[in-house]
Amino acid sequence: KSGRESENISCKLLDSVFHCVKLCGSELSLPVMLPGVMCNGQPQHEVSLYEHICTHLCALVAYLPHHHFHTLERILLQNVLSWDLHCSLLASDTWCFMDRWGGSDLLATHTHLLADILMDLPSAARDTIPYLALSSLLNRLVRLLEKDQ
User: Fold this and answer.
1) Could you tell me where the beta strands, DSSP code E, fall in 1-149?
2) pLDDT at residue 5 in the model
3) Dihedral, CA atoms, 140, 77, 79, 94, nearest 10 degrees?
4) pTM of the model as a whole
């Protein structure tokens, strides 16, 4: 497949994951437990539905070719700024994984980019869920920065 086709498939897959999360708000709030990561054919422990989804989404991110990162970043930012709490949290958790996985340069770049986006938001947006989610993500990323960054 061409790079463009492959990117469209990745975009649709990522969008579908977040769409399904929006539809599963009740299920994500219940104590639904699933087998966790397998080791020697046995689950390590049970995990919540949210942790199960997040783990598999992060695994997908780890295997995405670098030319898909622009699409990934766009979709994650859309969902961090979403009014849906579960989507926002999943996007934030995935973003933190992506930056830890991608290294200190990616982390620094994203931290500066998100700080600029946060500063550009109008003051009227400062009491909204999207603003608080972005602020929280930025706080999490700043804690991961090395001292010289």
Assistant:
1) 33-35, 38-39, 42-43, 46-48
2) 73
3) -50
4) 0.90
Closest CA to 43 of 34, 51, 55: 34
pLDDT digits (tens, 9 = 90+) for 73-87: 999 999 999 999 999
Query: How many whole angstroms from its chain centre is CA 71?
Result: 12
HEC profile of 133-148: HHHHHHHHHHHHCCCC
Distance, CA of 86 to CA of 66 (rounded, Å): 26
Q: Which two tokens stand for residue 34?
A: 């699933």
Q: What are phi and psi of 20, to 5 degrees?
A: -65, -40
Residue 95 CB partners (closer than 8 Å, separation 6+): 76, 80, 110, 137, 141
CB proximity list for 92: less than 8 A, separation 6 or greater:
80, 133, 136, 137, 140
